[in-house]
Amino acid sequence: MIFHLSGLYKIYGKRLENEIKNGDIPNHVALILDGNRRWAKRQLSIPKKGHWKGADAVENLLDWCEEFDIKIVTLYALSAENLDRNNEELVDLYELIRIRLEKLFNDPRIHRSKMRVKAIGRTELLPESIKEVLKRLDDVTKEYDKHFLNIALAYGGQNELVDAVKKIVIKIKDGTLNIEDINKREIESNLYTSHLPQSSPDMVLRTSGEKRLSGFLMWQSAYSELIFMDIFWPEFRKIDLMRAIRTYQERKRRLGK
Fold first, then answer.
1. What Cα–Cα distance (Å) separates residue 105 from each residue in 33, 48, 100, 101, 132?
2. Residue 170: half-sphere exposure toward Cβ, Cα within 13 Å
3. Contact 33, 54 (CB under 8 A)
4. Beta bridge partners of 75
């Protein structure tokens, strides 16, 4: 019976894959990687194990996004609020992030896909060891423009808007911008995502069953399709991504028109 169900599952997966490849693939997918600690708790394990398992799921995700030729991927990996967690857990998180960024630096997928890798958020709050790897990643990929991987670290949506306002105020004070010229394009050019050819995600996906964005890409997600999945991030599979893409394809995007 188990073998029979496994066979049916593979057939279903292949059929789903063929269906979505014949439809519109989202150009920019943003993901809130939620549920690592709750997964660990359900496994009667420590939070650290959940975070490491979640990092493995990210590795798989990058493979699947390359397979479906998703051009832009934005990952919500560490919120500004996460920086208030107990010191031991935060130290473990920082170490995990540093190790995985180092691995990403040597990842052939980055150069094969001509992928620019950039952190978005108040990265100045991060440890020097992480900032050093992020700078190396930015330097080695800054000329790439075929694919983009954005990693939200020490990120907060309200912080992003505050920082954008500060940049605009500085321009007004030094005379390079008139108040009358402030528009949507000017605001977007001062957000963390200003380096992207498309800053607005077509689809925002959140795991763990929570149905909120928690401030993620507040400006950019105004017309994004929101998809919430009742699965913890460490359990995320290729078929879950495909189901999300199919849901996206089934919706009629009017973009307010």
1. 21, 23, 9, 6, 12
2. 7
3. yes
4. 31, 151
Residue with tokens 């060891």: 129
> Which is it for strands 147-155 and 72-79: parallel, antiparallel or unpaired?
parallel
The enclosing H or E element of 238 equals helix 238-250
Amino acid letter at 250? E
Order of all β-strands in the sheet with 72-79: 115-120, 147-155, 72-79, 28-32, 203-206, 225-228
Output the pLDDT for position 42.
Answer: 87
What's residue 149's pLDDT? Answer: 98
- List, as one string, the DSSP characters of 201-224: -SEEEE-SS----TTTTTTTTTTP
Q: Are strands 115-120 and 28-32 parallel, antiparallel or unpaired?
A: unpaired
- CATH 1.20.1090.10 holds for 2-250: no
CB-side exposure of 126: number of CA atoms within 13 Å?
25
The pTM of the full predicted model, rounded to 2 decimals, is 0.92
DSSP 20-64: HHTSPPPSEEEEE---HHHHHHHTT--HHHHHHHHHHHHHHHHHH
CB 140 within 8 A of CB 174: no
- Which residues make beta-bridge pairs with 150? 74, 118
Rounded CA separation 198/200 (Å): 6
Give average pLDDT by consecutive 10-residue segment, the chain, 257 residues.
64 90 95 92 86 94 96 96 85 94 92 95 96 96 96 97 97 95 96 97 96 96 96 96 96 64
Question: Which residue numbers are catalytic?
Answer: 34, 82
